[in-house]
Amino acid sequence: MFARLIFVTGADVAAAVAFLRERASVITAQRGFRQLAASGDRSSGNVSIISVWDSMDDLEASDGALAALREEGLGVFGGQMTVRVFEQVAFGIGETPPQPGCVLRLVTYRMDSSRIDENISWFKSELLPTMMATPGIRAVRNLVDRATGEGRVGTVYSDQATLELAGAARAQRMAAARDRGIEFGEESTFEVLFGEMSTT
Predict the structure, then answer these.
(1) Which residues, at least 6 apart from 146, have a Cβ–Cβ distance to it below 8 Å?
(2) How many domains in the chain?
(3) Which domain holds residue 164?
(4) Where are the alpha helices (DSSP H) in 11-55?
(5) pLDDT tens digits for 43-63?
(6) Distance (Å, whole) CA 99 – CA 195
(7) What does the H/E/C string look like for 48-108?
């Protein structure tokens, strides 16, 4: 699957969520739609919005309608927007799915593009099952740009306390990843604000 990741800085977060709720049907009606989720930091005005698609063809086919929607949204909630496209290489969701009020930890990373397949295989076989077995983890997503080796790992926790309790295990996983040539960059914490998944 493939994901369009939108990051908005300096936005009116409440207005962004209201706009997304009102206009989500434009996104969910597109061919190949699978998932839509938004998280934000109300104090900074930062908002992260991800849409997931069956294929790159489906993602690209939605560009026309969604580019117009993004322009409309900026006129409503303001801010500066960046758009990136990634391959979704791993995804796990718990028995209790994420919901508004949960906490998202988003970590950026980079690796040599020649090691993407081996590292993603390792992530799926070794890390993902362990992460999903951690109490309070609701979902895990790994995104990568194969051309650059850049990626994002998002982990949704039930609340801030759960995130903090998982800190030691998380540090061990990151140390193991560094041993495999993965470099970590910015880390951000957001409140989950909105989510919708395809039922087909």
Answers:
(1) 87, 113, 116
(2) 1
(3) 2-197
(4) 13-28
(5) 999 999 999 999 999 999 999
(6) 7
(7) EEEEEECCHHHHHHCHHHHHHHHHHHHHHHCCEEEEEEEEEEEEEECCCCCCCCCEEEEEE
